[in-house]
Amino acid sequence: MKKKVLAKVLLNEAIAPNNFKMVISAKEMTVDATAGQFVNLYCNRGELLLPRPISICEVNKETGEMTLVYAVVGKGTKELSQMKKGETLGAMGPLGRGFEVSYEVEEHLIIAGGIGVPPMVELVKSLKGNITVYLGFRSNPILVEEFEAYGAVVHVATEDGSVGLQGNVMGLIKEHQPKPQMIYSCGPKPMLKAVADWSKAEDIPTQLSLEERMACGIGACLVCTCRTKKQEDTDWENRRVCKDGPVFWRDEVIWND
Amino acid sequence: MTKLDLRVNIAGVELKNPVMTASGTFGSGKEYGEYVDLNRLGAVVVKGIASTPWKGNASPRVAETYGGMLNSVGLQNPGVEEFIKTDIPFLRGYDTKIIVNIAGRTVEDYCAVVERLGDADVDLLELNISCPNVKEGGVCFGTDPRMVEHVVKEVKKYAKQPLIVKLTPNVTDIVAIAKAAEAGGADSLSLINTLLGMVIDIHKRKPVLANVVGGFSGPAIKPVAVRIVYQVAKSTNLPIIGMGGIMTGEDAIEFIQAGATGVAVGTANFINPTATIDVLEGIEGYMKQYGEENINNLRGIV
């Protein structure tokens, strides 16, 4: 049986304004974890009841440690950010469908923005071949050294121009004219949509990691659905971001939601 | 100490214990079956099933609030044919009762599903005339006593299994509605569906839910639910399935003492995937603590 476990906080620190890195010890959660999956973290110390779905940034199966990088966006993540080393919290996972990794692909392009960046670290670790990473931020890039340490070539864009190209990831695409065999993307919806439009025009297979407000996290409650279609279908259906995703193929996703 | 007897009877169907799942929070059991032993549940109440597949409402469909949450799923479901093909065989693999929640936009819709389930291997039907998230049907039927009696009477004509009617708390006089369901031929009542609510994102200056309003559930609503179970238990003879914010065995006991025969666990599943089992064990713990051997002796004692 799968279960919710008590995970021990080994580290929880700010790595940029509003962005925190938490390392938890939870061996059973690391065993099957793959890039693009997420975990549920439970606050449950007051009026906040629902778990917070947080993408997996890195997994160390030997030590049983999991790294989670999250943004403080509301009361729940604020509470998470105040947890101290040595404290424990309820956690469950890994959950959802992660990125599909093919060893036949040699040229990979990862495009991520903002708090969509963290899950791409574990993805870089699991890919073989040449990996290029485009990262977009408003300001204050995160995790750039991690991507480089795992052998990726990283290009950064910031909206305020403080680091790298001034602009966004679409500016990086324009500048570098990449020709990858596979694209992986995670970030704000307008960014994903722009990436999807470009990659469709270039006819490059693309996997997109979506985000939606969730409750159960395991596919039962149907609150986190997004509009999708099967490639040949004209009709659409609502599918669960938590269970059928969060990673979908570009051609499955319908944007006029 | 002698063995605890947790068996309860809902409209002629014996459940091994009173603990079941609240419709819409547990799918058809597949997802939670990876976290809990479904064999231990008195019954699985499945997500509302309509005559045809429904796509449900736009996202966001969930908003959190103090001690609870709002949802506006809008009864997304695969339709009765897919349910019969996939979900019934799955659930029949477990030693638990199957209760099918029935969704519809019209009286004919409800009757069509109930008729289709006539020869299906399910134990009880739960008529949902109380969903706050669909424009037609749902709650429209559940707020007017004459309409309640009419719908129940019509659906009963097609029902081969005992019919539970799930009522909305969003009414002025719940007792009048419950009596109307009883007059229409209901065999049991589920109390309560969600409270209609709304949450506004003051920073974006718009409602959190795409559907604007949604159904409020979770521990914050429990006193309302207990009150309704208590009032209805005192005024009708029907067995009641109590639900609304049950998080623990103690919560469930509260509903039973108010008059509920069965108890359903809903939102708690999202917070704790083994909530159903924890509630069951909590009930057992309470019985042991007070030397109560039979759960039925606790019912309606307040």
Automatic annotation (TrEMBL), chain A:
Cofactor(s) required for function per UniProt: FAD; [2Fe-2S] cluster
Keyword entries, A-Z: 2Fe-2S, Electron transport, FAD, Flavoprotein, Iron, Iron-sulfur, Metal-binding, Pyrimidine biosynthesis, Transport
InterPro entries listed in its UniProt record: Cbr1-like_FAD-bd_dom, Cyt_c3_hydrogenase_gsu, Dihydroorotate_DH_ele_sf, Dihydroorotate_DH_Fe-S-bd, Dihydroorotate_DHASE_ETsu, FAD-bd_FR_type, FNR_nucleotide-bd, PyrK_electron_transfer
Keyword Electron transport applies: yes
Pathway in which this enzyme or protein is active: Pyrimidine metabolism; UMP biosynthesis via de novo pathway; orotate from (S)-dihydroorotate (NAD(+) route): step 1/1
Cofactor note: Binds 1 FAD per subunit.
CDD domains: DHOD_e_trans
Ligand binding ([2Fe-2S] cluster): C216, C221, C224, C242
Limits of the FAD-binding FR-type domain: 2-101
Chain segments annotated as transmembrane: none
Residues at which FAD binds: R52, P53, I54, S55, G76, T77
SUPFAM superfamilies: Ferredoxin reductase-like, C-terminal NADP-linked domain, Riboflavin synthase domain-like
Domain of life: Bacteria
Assembly with partners or alone: Heterotetramer of 2 PyrK and 2 PyrD type B subunits.
Function in brief: Responsible for channeling the electrons from the oxidation of dihydroorotate from the FMN redox center in the PyrD type B subunit to the ultimate electron acceptor NAD(+).
Similarity field: Belongs to the PyrK family.
Protein name listed in UniProt: Dihydroorotate dehydrogenase B (NAD(+)), electron transfer subunit
Species, as recorded: Alkaliphilus hydrothermalis
TrEMBL record, chain B:
Residues at which substrate binds: K47, N71, S72, V73, G74, L75, N128, N193, T194
Entry similarity comment: Belongs to the dihydroorotate dehydrogenase family. Type 1 subfamily.
PANTHER family according to UniProt: DIHYDROOROTATE DEHYDROGENASE (FUMARATE), DIHYDROOROTATE DEHYDROGENASE (QUINONE), MITOCHONDRIAL-RELATED
EC number(s) on file: 1.3.-.-
Task of the protein: Catalyzes the conversion of dihydroorotate to orotate with NAD(+) as electron acceptor.
Intracellular or extracellular location(s): Cytoplasm
Organism in which the protein naturally occurs: Alkaliphilus hydrothermalis
Cofactor: binding details: Binds 1 FMN per subunit.
Residues of the Dihydroorotate dehydrogenase catalytic domain: 6-286
Protein name: Dihydroorotate dehydrogenase
